Every structure is written in structure tokens, then in C-alpha cells.
Amino acid sequence: MLADILPRVAESLHNNKRKPNAYNPSPSTMGPERCLRQYVYQALGVPRKPLPGRAIMVFDDSSWHEELTLDWLRQTTYKVHSEQLHVQLDCKLDFLPQRICPATWANCHNITIPQGYIAGHIDGIVSDPQTDYILEHKAINHFTFQQYWSGKLPSDYITQTSFYIASLQPYNVKRGILLIKNKNTSQFIEYLIEYDYTSDIALVLYRCHSNRDMVEMNLPIHNVLKMAINRVKLIHDHAEKRVLPLREYSYDDWQCEYCGWNRECYKNYIQECEQKDIDILLPKEAIEQAQKYVKYTKAQTILKKRIDSIQKDLRAIMQKKNCRLGIAEEFICEIKTSDKEVLDTSLLPQYLKDKIKQQKITDQFSVKKQKTIQPKTVNQDE
């Protein structure tokens, strides 16, 4: 009654008030993991497909996690202030015109962003008696959270935090706390980041888990803002030339699944693939990998046949014993039977089948050994 209607309400309300927005680079879109092609579509004015209701709820959910975290922080001795403060930085991008900040909240109303500048809004500043820290809050899924704690670097978020520190350099803010919340478990990872504007180096000092585990990192990341600004230039250049950059992700990656330009991006993908070069000599490292692939694929095929044969024998034995669970010393053999509902599309009228039909891109990878070509023999009598 309620579960199915909520995503539809979110989708309807969001898409009814959504206005087509021109490309406006911001600190959250300048990181190295962001898809350039997506922003070129936006810069070219290509319409974006409406977000599904569940995605809207996921994004909205992250905002509320931020509010909850700030509420908890206010109960500590740290001072939390400057939430959603408008900040901007001269990035010397003359193709960016003077414009009005698109944010709708009161403290950003009608703020002018000068030509060449990029602007954003910080989540807040956390202060102790000695130091002010930029606070950048993220709420993410469990899988990505585990990746970050295991050592993967949240490069986009570090770029964003560094931008905010740079934008507040006149106020002597030199450090930022990137606080990442696990939406499934309410655990946190904290990164302490020190950014130097003159050298354009972000130093990630440590990462700390809410269970009090800490990993000293002292990892310098060079040319943080230079690389970010160059990506904005690249997007502008591609849009000016009306040339799309190469895809940075595959169609089955989540980045593509959630992208608003997914259909547009892949509508001619099959033809593109058919036009790609063939008979290209691959580098030496491909030889060893291809040999391994053929070897392991063959072994897997043989192994699967053996497993299927053994399963057939065990099923036959259990059939004779008329049992669904049998014990063979330390082994338990069990057959679990269940039923599930399936959609019988043969009962649907053709117009409805056509309406719900969707094209899905698939590809098939293979490696096979070339046939040895025997040289033709020449008859000496001819």
C-alpha cells in the first residue's frame, strides 16, 4: 500500500519542479573519477532523462544523514558554524561567464559568481579553541565504505575538500575533515586533510574509523586543483568542438546505470563497436594473459562437466532412497525444492509487450587460439 507509492511520489514531485540546468562546474563535479562525457552532454544542452524515484530518495537520504551528523556534533565541545556557506575561487577560466549562484537557500540568494570563478557551498566549519576545519560530510553505501577503509582513496571527495580549503585561504583555514558515514551501519571514517594552495598539494594525514582504529597515511597528492581545473577546461573544449570524449566507464558500471544521459550515450553503441579496428597487434603483456585465459577456461569447462556428472549421480542415489536430505559420513547432501512466480509474457497482448520492451547491451568476450596456416605446396612438375 505504501512501499510502492513512495518512490512514485518522490519521482513525480522532483521531476515536476526540476528545471533544465546548464552546465555549471562546481567543486563536487571536478574530481578525477567523474565522467567527462556526462558533463559534455550537459554543456551541449542534451536533455537528461528524469531520475527514478528510488534514486531521488537515495540522494535525499544522504542530505538527511548530514543533518543528523551535524546535530550530534553540536552536542560536543566543537563549535559547528558556517553551514552551507557560499565560497568561490578564481580558477582563471575566462569562458565561465559572470552568473548568479543557482542555490535557493536564503544565505545564497542572488550572490554573483564573477567571470572565471567556480563556486560551491561548504557543509560547515568545525572549530576547536585553536583551529578551524572545513567539514565535508558524505553518506555512502556499505560496500564503498569498506573499500575506503581498506585503502581505496576517495579522490573526488579529497578534491572537493581541497577546493574548499583553497577558497578560504584568506581566513587562514588550512585543514579539512572529510567525514564519511556508512548509511547501513552508522559507522564513520574520518580523513584529516591539509592543503597548501601555493604548492597545490593535499596531504592526507590519516584515516580514522569510529571504532577508534587509525591508519597513519601522510600521503601527498600533487596538483590537486590544477588537475581539477584542467578537467573543466577539457569539458569546455569538447563542448566547443561538439566532440564527445571516450567513455570512462562500461555500460554495466553503476556510474552509467545512474547517469541521466545513459540512453543517449549508448544509443549508437553497437554501430560504434562494429566500426572499431580489427586485427590489431596487442602488446606483449597480452600474450601471457591470453594464455592464462585459455588454460583456465578449458579447466573450468572440464571441471563443470565433472561437477554436473557427480551431481547427477548423487541425485540418482537420493532418488532411489526417496529422500531429500542424506548423510554420507561428514557430508550432508540436500535437495531444496521451491517455487517462484514468473511472468508469462505469452499471455500479454502485443501492444503491451512492445511498450515494456527494453534494449539491453551485452557483449561476449572470447580468446581462442589461431589456426596454424600451412603453406601451400607447389608441384615441381607444373
Q: Please provide the ordered H/E string of secondary-structure elements.
A: HHHEEEEEEEHHEEEEHHHHHEEH
| First and last CA, distance | 87 Å
Q: Count of helical segments? A: 11
How many distinct folded domains?
2
Helix content: 25-40%
Given as residue ranges, the uncertain stretches (5+ residues, pLDDT < 50) are: none
Could you name the CATH class of the largest domain? Alpha Beta
What is the overall silhouette? Answer: globular
Lateral strand order in the biggest sheet: 1-6-7-8-9-10-11
Query: What would CATH call the architecture of the largest domain?
Result: Alpha-Beta Complex
Helix/strand-derived category reads alpha+beta
What is the oligomeric state here?
single chain
Give a quick account of the main beta sheet: strands, pairing sense, barrel closure: 7 strands, mixed
How would you state the average pLDDT, rounded? 90
- In percent, how much strand structure appears in the residues? 15-25%
